[in-house]
Amino acid sequence: MTAERRQVHLAAHFPGVNSTTVWSDPTAQSQVEFSSFEHFARTAERGFFDYLFLAEGLRLREHRGEIHDLDVVGRPNTLGILAAVAAVTRHIGVVGTLSSTFNEPAELARQLATLDHLSGGRAGWNVVTSSDAFHGGNFRRGGFLPHPERYERASEFVALAKKLWDSWDDDAVLGDAAAGEFLRAGAVHDVRHRGKHFDVDARPTVPRSPQGRPVIVQAGDSPDGRDFAAEHAEVIFSRHAEFDDGRRFYSDVKGRLAGRGRSEGSLLILPAVSFVLGDSAADAEEKACEISLQQISKPTAITFLEQVWNRDLSAYDADGPLPEVDPDPGEQITRGWARAFEENQAKISAWRAKAEAENLSIRQLVIAVANRHGFVGTAAHIASEIDRYVQNRASDGFVVVGHLTPHGLDEFTDAVIPELQERGVYRTEYPEGATLRENLGLPAPHRLTDEIGATA
Ligand SMILES: Cc1cc2nc3c(=O)[nH]c(=O)nc-3n(C[C@H](O)[C@H](O)[C@H](O)COP(=O)(O)O)c2cc1C
């Protein structure tokens, strides 16, 4: 008997606020108007994706004291977009990135339960702790919480949110006109929570939602982040898209589950991956080079180096050799990127060696080190690669990242999805009425009962 082939899970990442997204392409459209989100969502649903995914930046990125506007700047609010997307789709999940550092549990739990109601059980929450204090400037707390305490807060946040989501019994709303009873007596439980970060006596206002709780996604990568995922997450949005690295990450995180009484299948790992499709391998490679030049313009290449050198390099020519000056150890000139650049001196030495050995200009070097296009090739090649990763436990699927708004996913949906279906590793229709959690094949979460009123 042959073993059943592992099924591929896919999420569709709306183009982000970074240099992957080519806003300068003549065919690129608005990142603000609803028509873009609608087109993207309909394409993803046509391709039977598990969910549409939105990243979120809480503050406009800055470079050398100015708003960084070489990339897309500005996006409408995540939950508003997702609610609108839910209204024009029927099956696809709607998952948003929302910070556990700068939100409050009762408020966010209420918003997410509402999204789950409005979407008929398709809501998900990518819990992020936000990378640096700079984001805090937009909130009353300013530069709030050192890294370890952010995960402590995140864990307490999600534990409390779960109690809030579980506080209404499924059958709480009676609507019994004859008896004059709207609610069943005792069916709404008060939530008492005393913890280091939250002290709450809540009586939640939103009835239990179709999934009970939204699907919990997580995107941190540190050891604390991985432990948090093993404790709470049902999906990890990872940056480990290279095959061997992906396998190491997969076994590391899945290995953390057993000690918490969780099965391997209760947590899916979906790395972010971009793609370039072509009619042949050579055609795809040629397109990849063209897209790289769009993504890494000359000013983008210089800015990229400035982030690492931490100094003004505007006098340098992007088509010329790397700067000979040393990096500046002073205060960071870049603010708001997802990850701070570490060990810059070592990085610069390696880049100098690479540029010299391969005779690369600044722009060519930046394209080589910063702009890898995940899967490049024909539709058949890309589908085989996705299948290989999933069968070999390098991932459970991918968060697919296109580079054009809003039609960057069209050709993937038209060309790669049929190839996956032909291989028997991808759905050919959505099960009618399935929730996001059911589409992901995840177990129903353990319902809290006695713990709700207990002090945490
Ligand atoms: C693949 C990936 C995507 C992320 N996307 C976002 C995002 O959209 N918004 C955000 O505020 N943080 C994002 N983050 C960063 C998270 O805020 C995360 O909490 C941060 O990296 C700190 O956690 P860590 O030290 O465990 O990585 C992302 C991280 C990863 C790995």
From TrEMBL:
This is FMN-dependent oxidoreductase (Nitrilotriacetate monooxygenase family). Residues 24-392 form the Luciferase-like domain. The keyword Lyase does not apply. Belongs to the NtaA/SnaA/DszA monooxygenase family. InterPro entries: Diverse_substr_monoxygenases, Luciferase-like_dom, Luciferase-like_sf, NTA_MOA. Keywords: Flavoprotein, FMN, Monooxygenase, Oxidoreductase. CDD domains: Nitrilotriacetate_monoxgenase. FMN binds at T97, H147, Y151, S222. It holds the Pfam family Bac_luciferase. GO terms for molecular function: monooxygenase activity; oxidoreductase activity, acting on paired donors, with incorporation or reduction of molecular oxygen. It comes from Schumannella luteola.
